[in-house]
Amino acid sequence: MRGYLRVGALLGAFGFRVSQVPHPVWALAVCAVFIAVGAAVLDDYGVSWDEFSQRALALETVSYVLGQNDELLKDHDKFYGTTFEMPLLIVERALGLQDDTRAILLSRHILSHLFFIAGGFFCYLLIRRLLSGD
To answer: Which residue of 49, 71, 92, 119 has the smallest Cβ count within 10 Å?
Structure first.
């Protein structure tokens, strides 16, 4: 807790106050707007250059974790993190999207967008806590 107080004091030294940070209701409203905008432009998202290789690596990792094969150990990307990719793959499987490439990509895009929005909201909460000195 002491680290929080030091960072809060540092931010306070620069003139930032918790009263300047909007109420959480406003932050949730902004998040809702960003979610709506993301949903509105979902069909316009492009496909990144590594999207299919990321998914393939997640498939290899799941197969390795389940003991189905050892192909992951031969892959040159085996050390590339799949912490974010594996949950996307689990959602894909839960929704039964394995055969529809477009649906797979759209689900990955919206879930990535929602993860980004959640990260922004938690960053807001952290800033609010640091400035309040709790």
So the answer is: 49
